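check this one:
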Amino acid sequence: MKKFKFTIDGNTYSVNVKNVEGHNAEVEVNGKAFNVTMEQEVSALKTPVIVRGEAQTKKTDTKVATNLPPTPPSTRPSANTVNAPLPGSIIRLAVNVGDTVKQGDVLLVMESMKMENNILSERNGVIKSIAVAAGQAVLQDDVLLEIE
């Protein structure tokens, strides 16, 4: 219950607010009970509202891929590469070029989000090349090594 003192036209009123539900309030003015309906003033929003229209596309947008020259085979990603699953840094290499690996063998250990992660071989093969060194930082999808 909240108590207020109002002075209206020189007269002082003691008002006790007993209960407020929605726009209705039970008040007691100088010992006499009243049910009062309150009107809430509509205030302007302080935070602007962003209204976005639908994105417009051009007919030329679909032709971008046809205007690009083909990627030469030497720069295409190989299906035999092992890529970084997430960003981090290489802690330790467990293989060397020319080593034979089986599916499930640990290839390297990398740290990401303060956790050590073993990068495992997904297939059998021979290590063809290693693109990273211990201590090197890598981003997600960077090539770590290649298995042939």
